[in-house]
Structures are given as structure tokens and as C-alpha cells.
Amino acid sequence: MKSVLTLVAPPDRYRLSDAVVAVVAQHLHEDGAVLGEPVWLAEDAACDIPFDHLPTERAYQLAAATLAELPVDYHAQLSEGRRKKLLLSDMDSTILANETLDDLAEQAGIKDEIAAITARTMAGELDFAQALTERVAMLAQLPESALATAFDRLTYSPGAATLVTTMRANGAYTALVSGGFRYFTSKVAAKLNFDIDLANDLEIAEGRLTGRLAGPILDANTKLDTLTRLSAEKNISPAEAVTVGDGANDIPMLREAGLGVAYQGKPIVRKAISCQINHTDLTTLLYFQGYRISDFTNENAAEAAARAGDDEQMTTGG
């Protein structure tokens, strides 16, 4: 079959049943699709519905109408080229549950003030570079030790390590590209086995943040340029890449990639990007690429470290 519609549910909250799959398939058929047999990628959680003779956009619309009241994520696409060779991921509120700049602001006693600016920036209401410069300036004189404290409090998004290690195990190149800070991306990339990381550098002098950035600002255009550059270096097309993020500065790279996914996206991102993860975790990016759960690389040091960090926070109430 030339096309496929993938349905993914959170198995801890909702069981994706044969009946639900059958209803979606029936609606595709009634609209003219020729159907193949459903393929279960994970029992009760993820299923492919192969089809022909129906545009993927129409299949998406039918899925959206059918599943509107259910906690199910879905995506329709061509079957050819489905598995990607390059992963570009945002960090804050994507690979991490945290907004690291807001976490630093908490130690400076100004979290609410900076978080409000962060929210407006990610919603596309403020210029990214200007807002970042303003927020970093507000952190002037914060001790360098605050960076380590913030890192120790990070929470990894469910499925993050499995996404990265599974794609790497299958030959994909992985990049963590953030408008945040390299202090965090370098450590997160090392823990989760990303191939490279790119982010902004904080200027530090005499053990304290100066309130300035060192070097040019990494913004939406830089993220898009990174997709273009890495695709060229790997001798592939951006169509062979998957990108994922949540904020307005991610939209250009999400639009350009063959599979651009809004993960728990802000409203402006959900409006711009049809492929969304709103109910499930980051392993859904693997299901959308046709991976079965048996293909996942689950047992690795990165996942264990991420789980251990989460468990410790739950134990300490952090």
C-alpha cells in the first residue's frame, strides 16, 4: 500500500482496541480508500492502517474527526521513505520536561517574571533573540553553581532516551538543537547519546553569570540552517529527517522536515504543524516511522539514568 495511517494511544490511560481501529478504517473505506490489513506495532497502543486511493491529507482529516474525543495521536503519510535517517530535536519542554532558563530564574528569585516572558516567546508573541537577551540579562550575578543545581533537577520526557538510542541503533544521526544553553545540552546529549548538540553559550566571569551570551544567538533560523547543513553533510534530503519541538522557534525546522512533529506544542505550533503528539510520549515518533515496540532499544544506560533521576525526584518530592 502506498500510504499508511498510524494510531497511537497511551496504554496506561487508554487501550487502543480493534474496534476503534475498525471504525477509523471503515471511514477511510467509505471515502474511497482501498485498505490493507491493520498492522499492530504495539499491542493495545499502536497500529498502522495501510491504504491506497485516498490522499493522506484526507485520511488525516477523517482520523481527526473520528478520534476527536479520544486520547489518540495519529499521522497519515506515504509509506515510502517513512523511516528517517536524521533526528533533530529541541530540548526544553521536548526532550526535557523543564524550561531550563526558568529553572535558573527560580534560583534568582524571579521565576514567575522570567517564565511569563518564556511563555510569550514560545507562543510566538515576542522576538526570540530579544526576549532571550532580556531574560539572560536578568540573571546577571547568579552564581555559576546554579547551573549544576538546575541540571540536577532536570526531568526527562518519557520515551526520550528510547527515541534517540533506537534511531541511532538503526543508523540515524541525532542532534539536540536548542535555543537554550550549551551547559545543559552538552550534558543532556551525553546522557541520552545524541551525536551532537548545539545551543547558546552563557558568559561567565569570576564564578558568576555576567548577564550576557557569548557568541551569536541560536534561534529559529539557526535550527532550520542546522537541518539543511546536516542533511547536506549526510548526503540526504530534509525529507529524510524527523524534527520535533514545542515552541514557535521550532516551526521552520518542523515545516521543512519530512516528518515534523509538534510535541505538546504551544497553540501557535499546533496551528502550524498537523503532525502532533498531544496524548502519548516521544516513542510515538518511532511508531510514526513504522518501528514496532520489539524494535525499540529500551535497556541502555541513558534510559536507566533518566528513570533513576525521575525516581529520585519522586522520592525526595523534588
How would you describe this protein?
- The protein is of the alpha/beta class and 318 residues long.
- The chain has a domain at 1-80: Alpha-Beta Plaits (2-Layer Sandwich).
- 43% of the residues lie in helices and 21% in strands.
- The protein contains 14 helices and twelve strands.
- A seven-stranded mixed β-sheet has the order 9-8-7-6-10-11-12. Strands 1, 2, 3, 4 and 5 form a five-stranded antiparallel β-sheet that branches.
- Helix 9 (182-192) links the parallel strand 7 (173-181) and strand 8.
- The chain is elongated and about 65 Å long.
- The relative contact order is 0.15.
- The model is unreliable at 299-318 (pLDDT under 50).
Number of helices: 14
Summing up helix and strand content along with how strands pair, one would put the structural category as: alpha/beta
Distance between the termini: 49 Å
| Rg on CA atoms, Å | 20 Å
| Low-confidence sequence ranges | 299-318
In order across it, which strands form the biggest sheet? 9-8-7-6-10-11-12
Instruction: State the name of the first-level CATH class of the domain at 1-80.
Output: Alpha Beta
